[in-house]
Amino acid sequence: MKKYIKVISVLITLLLTSVSVIAMDFETFKANVTSDIRQQKELPNLLSIWDNMITNDHVELGADAQSTKDSITKIQAILEYHLSKLPADDSEAYFITPFPPTPLRLIGTANPFCSDGKTLCPSFFRTSTMRGYISSGHPTELIYSNIGDDIPGIKFYNNFLANHKNITAKLINQVPDSLVGATYYFKLDDGKYIFSLKGNQENTQTQNHWEIWFGDQDTEHNLARTKEVFEFVKPIGN
To answer: Does a structural domain hold residue 12?
Structure first.
């Protein structure tokens, strides 16, 4: 009898777990991300940028201050972490950069601390979250225009690439400035959504303008961004 009770208990636990996954709607997703963002005290404008993102589907920001760039990178890392928890078939990502993605090349190649020597730089959080997203099985395309043995961290990148069959890497002649960044598509219980970021790649030229798209894929701004990304990505082929 005890054996059957234990089996029933396990089945109930599995059922409740599956229900919690199915019941993940956009409001719940945003609430989970907001909770994590509120815990980040070192970047004073982090919450205001996030509030802007969830209020407006398209946000434009100047990047003159390092704190703006750090806040955007931290938000990306937190979103990446939560997207990695979705089923593999419910999210896909496109990274379009001049060089192979920095987070996949960082291990052992740079100082993880910011200029104060104490605070971990946001880019290093993405070393973990981007790898976690890909390692969770989500289809990922990496599109870049420069490759070579002289690129810092390229051995770490090549090793990671070789061990993850869900990555498609494409070398092209030139990456358009308007598309440098990352775009994630994801599906929740109540619809399809996008998080897209346009900005400079870490350790490249200074960027004085950021653009962020976030929310329902069917809004005017987000549909336009989706069209822009796919019209560039699809002709490249596999």
So the answer is: no
Q: How far apart are CA 49 and CA 42, in angstroms?
A: 14
Q: Is residue 198 in some structural domain? A: yes
Q: Dump pLDDT digits (tens) for 153-203.
A: 899 999 999 999 999 999 999 999 899 999 999 999 999 999 999 987 665
Q: Is residue 41 part of a domain?
A: yes
- Domain harbouring 98, CATH code: 3.30.870
**10 lies in a domain?**
no
Q: Whole-angstrom Cα distance, residue 124 to residue 102?
A: 9
Torsion of CA 120, 121, 127, 128, to 10 degrees: 40
* Backbone phi, psi, residue 142, to 5°: -115, 120
19: left (phi over 0), alpha (psi -120 to 50) or beta: alpha
Domain count, the chain: 1
Residues 6+ apart with CB under 8 A from 34: 50, 54
Residue 78's nearest CA partner among 214, 223, 190 is 214
- Contact yes or no for 181/198 (Cβ under 8 A): yes
CA 233 to mean position of chain CA atoms? 17
- Cβ atoms 14, 42 nearer than 8 A: no
Whether the model clears a pTM of 0.90, i.e. scores above it, the answer is no
Range of the structural domain that residue 204 is part of: 24-236
Q: With contact defined as beta carbons under 8 Å apart, do 169 and 163 qualify?
A: no
